[in-house]
Amino acid sequence: MTVDVIDLRSKLAQFADHWAPRRVARLNDYDVKVVRILGDFVWHSHEDTDELFLVVSGDLTIDFRDHRIVVGPGQLCIVPRGVEHRPRADAEVTALLIEPSGVVNTGDAGGELTSVTQDL
Amino acid sequence: MTVDVIDLRSKLAQFADHWAPRRVARLNDYDVKVVRILGDFVWHSHEDTDELFLVVSGDLTIDFRDHRIVVGPGQLCIVPRGVEHRPRADAEVTALLIEPSGVVNTGDAGGELTSVTQDL
């Protein structure tokens, strides 16, 4: 059994669509994913889990109902469970996401941006 | 409640010792930690959990009993549960670690490099 080295930028270079996370690894029962972000996502929350965003490139804005944050390259944030949030980016952002397997990207909101995680 | 933006390099600048991970965030029941690595760690394994290493700076070698990998900046690997490994670095490496809270850094090996995770 050989342990893989996963290069985030190489993985991100393999697709171009936005808001469609690709799984690059599993950590126990969590998915490690990469995603391209552009424009506004939907307001949503995940009732049962926190969500980790680590930005690889660009500046990711996350709106909350009472404040907003901007997460840049080499920075991360944890969106706590149950907290409504809206990721968005005026210019393209690439990011690493970590959350339990099976979490739906649009959380409680659903809609056309809902994406089934694919393996890369 | 304000969501924090966590800058990995800023967090790493707050300490200088090696092999002593600092927790910078929690993701459900997982710890998100940063660590400075220099020299050879002990051979060890974690029977009950995988472990994620994401390198921030430097080149991290991880020896396994039958192969080795080198993980560079922007690259990650998942060391599977139960697999013996030895992290090491000839020049200083900084990295992000993610694993369940309470995991002991030296796993089944113990010894003087065992470190209790501190908050940063």
TrEMBL record, chains A, B:
Mind telling me which InterPro entries this protein's record contains?
Cupin_2, PKS_Associated_Protein, RmlC-like_jellyroll, RmlC_Cupin_sf
Q: Where is the Cupin type-2 domain?
A: 40-96
Q: Which Gene3D superfamilies match?
A: Jelly Rolls
PANTHER family recorded: 16.7 KDA PROTEIN IN WHIE LOCUS
Protein name, as recorded:
Cupin type-2 domain-containing protein
What is the native source organism of this protein? Gordonia soli NBRC 108243
